[in-house]
Design brief:
Elements: E1 3-10, H1 14-19, H2 22-29, E2 33-37, H3 48-53, E3 58-62, E4 72-76, E5 82-85, H4 90-93, E6 98-102, E7 107-112, H5 119-139, E8 146-151, H6 175-186, E9 189-191, H7 192-196, E10 222-227, E11 234-239, E12 251-256
Parallel strand pairs: 1-2, 7-8
Antiparallel strand pairs: 1-12, 2-4, 3-4, 5-6, 6-7, 8-10, 9-10, 11-12
Amino acid sequence: MNIMKIISYNVNGIRAAITKGFINWIKEENPDVICLQEIKAKEDQIPTEEISAAGYPYQYYYSAQKAGYSGVAILAKEEPKNIVFGTGIDYMDFEGRNVRIDYDTVSVMSLYLPSASNIERLDFKYQYMDEFYHYIEALRKDIPNLIICGDYNICHQAIDIHDPIRNAKTSGFLPEERAWLDKFINNGYIDSFRHFNKEPHQYSWWTYRANARNNNKGWRIDYCLVPQTMNERMVSASILQDVKHSDHCPIVVEIKK
């Protein structure tokens, strides 16, 4: 069986992750495609030759205009037939939040949805979510086999957060955010991890405060959403909670090519 292994990983600064062994790790893990979020660097600040030598000659970086902020990337073993940087929606693209690659039988997007530390950013996040939803609806007419990997900055359900009661009024677990993700999934997408794994205490991000990671007080805010039309092509999905280059950990989905 010809399997494509896709990893999504918010590295919280690619240069910092590299100092913690990121490049050796990708050699060992050996995915076909790696979607990165929050790279916090421009391409000329990244050791692209080392990454190429690790098996990823095709590298697509989409950095924020603001230095040391946001930014997404895709690293690939095989050359895609098409690459799309951004969405064409200016305020999204200014922050470097979307990059997509297309192959013959699958497309993969790296997405970094905004977080919201205050009411202004929450309004920005809601605007982004609304426009992104419509952008994807239109895009899927031409790109039906689109897997959207990334940091959505939203926990979908109570099982996805360590303390749903105390966090009920915290951005990332607000009813409006959860309803949006519900709508997104119900509009033809599969939460690949939950498709295979219904167990609680499975998280992809932990605050650096209060020893949260060692106590597994986390949030599952990273997803690989797979179109329902590709349901039969999904092989597995997992969260690599023991990988520690970041405050997030990588997530994986495997599909038949």
